[in-house]
Amino acid sequence: MATTGKPVSAEIEALSAVLGTDASKLLDPTVAKAWIALLTAYGRVTRALSSELMDSSGMSLADFDVMAQLVRSEEYRLRMSELADAALISKSGLTRRIDRLAVNGWVTRRRCTEDGRVHWATLTPLGLRAFKGAAPGHLAAVADRFGSALPASEMERLTRDLLKIAAKNAEPINS
Amino acid sequence: MATTGKPVSAEIEALSAVLGTDASKLLDPTVAKAWIALLTAYGRVTRALSSELMDSSGMSLADFDVMAQLVRSEEYRLRMSELADAALISKSGLTRRIDRLAVNGWVTRRRCTEDGRVHWATLTPLGLRAFKGAAPGHLAAVADRFGSALPASEMERLTRDLLKIAAKNAEPINS
DNA sequence: TTGCAATAGTTGCACTTGCAATCAATTCGG
DNA sequence: CCGAATTGATTGCAAGTGCAACTATTGCAA
Q: How far apart are CA A124 and CA B44, in angstroms?
């Protein structure tokens, strides 16, 4: 869904007829339905949020995520690698994303004086202002498109379940 | 976040300090946590599944999804537009994906004799064989990375919740 | 009929992505 | 100290993506 970007979709159902009678042994139909539901929910919500954010603030979802990481960091700065891990993107992807954010004047990149291999990505005052301008609308959109679908207690249960799934798949992006 | 493809990540927490005291009015912390959990779970699982599928079968997750749609269709074929909607990708994206699948000999594209505007994408016997080869491993991977995290009853609840979220955001991809 | 609107797909374009190779700086073993 | 291994980040490359503009075909109205 690239969000834009990355492809988001899938269907696994009804493969039994093709694969043979034991397809449900490979993937429990209950699990298949849940998996499709996850892909569908994710795809629809992110697609909508992405275009709303781009229209209102000229910022991609990935831009927002990176800037959000910096906002919550000490002195509004992070090493490139730390930032890549935090934002769940590859190192090369981050390099180029920071290039673009730097062109906007939202982030600066400076070599670390103590260790010349390290580069700090730092949110600028202009970037902070852009983020402050974008965040309320984006957060409201998340509340509307995602948050309003379930009551709070159910939302907490959803969180616990999703975190269990995430925990089962904990591997760093940048091997 | 994705599969290749799409950026998958985010953090919304801890914005109150930056946005002012009322950030939690914009987005309930409960919702924020759930949203981050969704992005994280989706990103990690799809990333892993994507590379496993590519390694084992030379097929992207998007390829698999498109072929799965054809497998479950009448006569293994679908119109381009139907297929794009079903696979949740744009029309142009599908055009090029079918190009690539056709190069592999997995799908053919033929103009419809009754309505010259329509083109049928049809899974070939070779494509069906490739799909049959890929599906067991992929389904097992879904079962392992996603399905094994929760008991069945909880999985059903998760499905219901996710479908509610999806329903709140039901809009066709191709406007 | 004829000509305009609607529909189905494809293409031009600008961008984004990740992997592998590479460059640069630091650290560590001898 | 010095060269090899390690670590941090950037770049070449080959994809993949969506939007908007375009082509082709059909339908419909006068």
A: 30
State whether the beta carbon of A108 lies below 7 angstroms from any atom of strand D: no
Query: Averaged over A52-78, what is the pLDDT?
Result: 90
Q: Counting runs of H as helices and runs of E as strands, what totals does chain A give? A: 8, 3
Question: How large is the average pLDDT for residues B56-72?
Answer: 90
**Domain hosting residue A77, numbered range:** 59-144+151-175
Q: What pLDDT does B174 receive? A: 56
A52 and A63 inside one domain: no
Domain boundary among the residues A14, A36, A57 is at A57
B7 vs A135: CA distance, rounded Å: 19
Say whether B23 and A157 touch across the interface (CB within 8 A): no
- DSSP code of A99? H
Number of Cβ atoms within 10 Å of the Cβ of A102: 15
Q: B114 pLDDT band (50/70/90 cuts)?
A: very high
List the A120 CA – C22 C1' distance (angstroms): 21
Residues 115-144 of chain A within 7 A of strand D, judged by CB, are: 115, 117-120
Asked if A171 and A135 sit in the same domain, the reply is: yes
pLDDT score recorded for residue A4: 23
* A70 and A91 in a common domain: yes
Q: Do A68 and B12 touch (CB under 8 A)?
A: yes
Helices and strands (H and E) in chain B: how many:
8, 3
- φ and ψ at residue A124, rounded to 5 degrees: -85, 165
Whether residues B86 and B47 fall in one domain: no
